[in-house]
Amino acid sequence: MYASIVLTFIARRYYDYLRPPPVVLPTLFLSPPLISSTPSSRSSSGTSMHPHHTLDSAIGGLPVEIWDYIIDLIAADPSGWASGGYIPRCMLVCKTWVPRCWSHTSPYKCVIICSAKAMESYAILLRTSPRRARSVEYLAIQPEDVTNCRWVTLVPVRLPRLPDLRQLALSNIDFEQQDTRFSQFYSSFRCPKLHIEGRCGGQWPRLTVSNLDYFKITTGLYRDNTWSASTLGGRFKLRSTTRTLEVEAAWSELASLSHRDIHAPSLERLYTSLARSDLTFREDDRRLWTNVVGLFRVRTLPVLTDVSVNLRTTGSFVTVTLTREYDLLRITMEGEEGYAYVIRMLPLLASFRFRKVRFTPKSTRFPTVAEGRGLDEVLTRFRTLVGCSFGSWIDMPLNVSQCALETWHSLLPQCARKGLLERACLWDEVSCDFHHKLKDSENYRTLPQKEKVFVGLPPEMRHDIWAEWSGTTTPPFWVTNAYSRLRDVALVEARNSATIQADAAAFKITHPKVNEAFVSRAVAVYLTITVDVKYSSALLDVAGFMCRRGPPHSVPAEVEYFAAFYWLTRIHLLPYLCDDYSLLEKHAAWIKTSLQSSEPELAKVLFEDLSIRPDILCRAWLPGAFVNVLPDDDVLRVWDILFSDGVTALLRTAMAILVLCKPSLIAATSQSTAMEILLNPPRSLLPPLSENLLKVILSMKLVDDEGIDKDTTRRCAEWDAVLTNAPASGLHHHQSVGKLVQAGIPEAMRDPAWSGLTKAKVKWTEGQYEQTVKVAANNALERNPEAEQFLNHHSQVSLQQLLDLIRPYFPVVAEGTDPPGLVDLARFTLLQSPNNAKEEDIFWTVLSLAVDQHPYLSTTSDTRLEQDAAWLVARLDQLEPDLSHTLFFEWSLSPVALYKLWIPTAFVGTLPADYVRRVWNLFLFHGPAILFRTAVALLLSCKAAFSGIHGPDGAMRFLSRPPESTLPLPDTFFSVVLSVQMDDDNLPPLSSPGLDGENHGGVAPSSVLDDVPRFDIKDTDLESSEER
Q1: Which one has a higher pLDDT value, 1013 or 418?
Q2: Distance between CA 216 and CA 196 in Å, rounded?
């Protein structure tokens, strides 16, 4: 009792000394008095005032708490601030008073006004210092008495200007009591955010607000869980320039919201939350969702991009968000009634024409079978829908014992068949809690490699696992060093041609996350350090797909991407990217044999009825490892098997595509239709889940490679027996050679067979090659444009090798001219020869070919050319007069030009390599007459393709190198070649005297030619090949 009396006396004494009794502000703005519960001891210095005092220290004989309380009383009187304020003067008295005085003069970031008296106090306080008004960022007006709040209209008038105000909040204001100038006064607040909440009276306020970025209004009934607040009457009307509008109201207050109620030309986002008692679908719901979709089709809301409607009850909610920019519909739901309501609501949003739907159930259960069936039927009706995705809340994952995506596929089978659902799981906690826990478990880390492939690889770990399986976890120093040194040098810039950049830009269209500059640079560096690979679009597709996760942001990251790309192509894809297609053709034959064994009906349709060549399919599929052929998720699973099992994974994938597309392929009526299906398989033919495609791929059985090797071994043995038993000069007279030549010469026996058919070993005397080479050493043939052009595309052949084959030709033959087709003959023979072949043997083979072709290589007589070309026209006119008339009369193509294009080079550079090899096999056995037959057969086979060509220029470009897709299968094509009958009356000279005066035309005797099957030109097979 005594202590309290003393404290009160001292406080009044010092307070009266400074000023008269104060007017107390609301307690909300006053700091509570800090009065110690125990008496404070005096300091040893009596009246000394030390600036560094503790809680129990005394100043002037009084505790610090008393001085703080006195300063608070002084600051609480508004009249004391009018004359400059006593608080600034107190700061000059003592250093110990400065912190407490500073707290009263410091800037205000948040100002809350609850009464008229508080308004007047802040009107004075904010004017005491210029920086106080500038510091206010948040202003809240919350009347304590809702029935007496007319003073709210005067707040903007009484307060000073608040230039940095960011948000204005009005709570529990009855707008019916306010003055008519309310909007005019409050327009002086230039704040970007406005929030009106609480009881607003009996009617919706008619608001006209400008200079807003965000406007939010919350009614009292929305916040009142007891539903005791009054419902706002009338219609919600708003005229504003706000960009974002958020309205929270009860269902009865805003169920009729439409575009007629909002006039906001700058509105971009509209968020509406409606409280209701349950989620039972009503007639009012139909009107609401129709009006929501209509918001996007009115001129009063031209820039509206997002509309979100939230319907909430006590235990559940449904949130629907429509995004026009991405044509996206997002649905978030919680509670037992959510799925049933969404099924009834979705058809009303059809006019929005959304392309993607995202479901996020905040629940621990999937929909029931009945709910899933209803949702599946509704989603499949939308014609514009291209994809559906599903997720869950992180804190409430769906309880599953398997992959969540598999469960959704089983619940929505029609959507899965249409390809609307995702094809691969993302392994994250939002999409699939099952896989998210699995990847962190010890069981997954210890799985064998093949089982891990079957289960799947986490996307964020896939590249590391690939590197581990390839043995390239740490890239070799020379790879990383090469990329770091070559990425910016001139050599790479020279190889980074416009073609690569254009292909990279085209790849970025389908893969937006890819950095096209890095992809083109990586391909250029790869081509620089890998001399045996030439650029192709498949190489760029592989490089782009390797970094599809996103662009690297640093040079080390680029090195990591490049190392992975380098080892993938080097270990698995290199044979398919080189100029040598022997392995690709072998694998194509392997796929064909395997398909004939497992699916004979499909194989007959593809390879016989439609004449689809398996090597063309393999060239489209294998070099790019199915990038841009299969969906990206499926390509990733194929690459998983590729890194695990090797290139057989690609062959199995090719067979799987053929088997999956079987119904459409059997129904195809033309080769072009079937090729379109195979080069871009429709998603409807593929399994909905990438995991199911993986199962199909692993189930494919390839015929044992030994079967193919046995057939090749048998043919090689037959040729070896013929070459061993038959005399070197009489190979053409052997009874079985004709059938062996027609069946094809194996690669291993090609060099000795060609040598035997050309009689290279018996025509020339021993030692003649050395003498010829010595003579050719002084030849002036140093540069040949055709040879240099060939070398630019075949780096594995040196210029010296090619010139060594060309130079000795001139001293041997009588006329030492430079034939235009000699380089083609020499370079093709050089490419077909084995690596261990002798240079002398290759030269004599080339020379024998050149001698047999001598009249056609060096003929310069116009009369001779015109005679040979006239025979070609006459024969075609007999077989196909309409085609002959179109080519040589309507388009005025020159027969002599076609003759020079095909005959001197024996179709090298015109037909694909495997066709040219077959032509040469027949040419060396039957003689030059087979070249004219091939010319006629080529024109007949391309008859259907001429319908899409207009004009002679296009026809000459087409005939100079016909696309492989326009040619029939090799067996079908050469049956047409052998069916062309030679007319003796118009037959051109087909043989020429050799150096020894012997006929070296190579024409087989009649006994051998009788073994070769002949076909009538109107045969069914020929007609079908012409149609194709």
Answers
A1: 418
A2: 6
